[in-house]
Amino acid sequence: MITVVRFGRFEARIQSEVADFLARSLDCEIECGGLLPEPEGALDERRGQWMSVEFLKALLAAAPRRGRILGLTGCDLYIPMLSFLFGQAQLDGAAAVVSVARLRQEFYGLPGDEGILITRLRKEALHELGHTLGLVHCPDRSCAMSLSTNLPQVDIKRDEYCENCLQAARARLAALNGESK
Ligand SMILES: [Zn+2]
Ligand SMILES: [Zn+2]
């Protein structure tokens, strides 16, 4: 079972749009879950950014048994080694998080565009959730599982997996469904 939750003030409407999109993409049921508070102590006030690992910990505590959980946040995430992250996930683990902070046009001083935001978010949601299903980075630059460390790399990929990644994701999902029965 896969659940999509939101942190803090993240828009419920965009959360349910992402949940519907993932259900169509993966051809499985996705639960649109509730709201989690932003993790205590995750904010680094000096950087003005939030520690991604704390979001994963909060998600793990809320994860369905043998399932997967994807959290959506507007907070700008980082890990100590990197200046920022679009998202983070446990490889073949329960939890993944995606931040929309740097997917918004407004971050770059441009007028807001919800269509662009949602398209980018779909790609990164598929990407991070894919990691929880055991998928690694894909060499196909148009596949949602290709690595994006900047916005042009997000924009160049499609909001779907290549055939290989889709097969692998479906196989892992089928195995998980079998285990939980
Ligand atoms: Zn990745
Ligand atoms: Zn791929």
What structural class should be given to the helix and strand makeup? alpha/beta
Bound molecules: zinc ion
The succession of helices and strands, N to C, reads: EHEEEHEEEEEHHH
Proportion of residues in β-strands: 15-25%
Number of self-contained structural domains: 1
CATH topology: Collagenase (Catalytic Domain)
Shape field: globular
The main β sheet shows up as: 5 strands, mixed
Helix-residue proportion: 25-40%
Distance between the termini: 11 Å
State the strand order across the main sheet.
2-1-5-9-8
Just name the CATH architecture. 3-Layer(aba) Sandwich
- Can you count the beta strands? 9
Indicate the mean pLDDT: 96
* Number of helices in the DSSP assignment: 5
CATH class: Alpha Beta
According to CATH, the homologous superfamily is Collagenase (Catalytic Domain)
Rg of Cα set: 15 Å
Note poorly predicted spans. Answer: none
Give the helix/strand layout:
Blueprint: E1 2-7, H1 12-26, E2 30-36, E3 43-44, E4 49-51, H2 52-62, E5 68-73, E6 77-79, E7 82-85, E8 87-89, E9 95-99, H3 114-132, H4 151-156, H5 163-179
Helix pairs in contact: 1-3
The protein binds zinc ion (2 copies).
One zinc ion (ZN) binds at residues 127, 131, 137, 147.
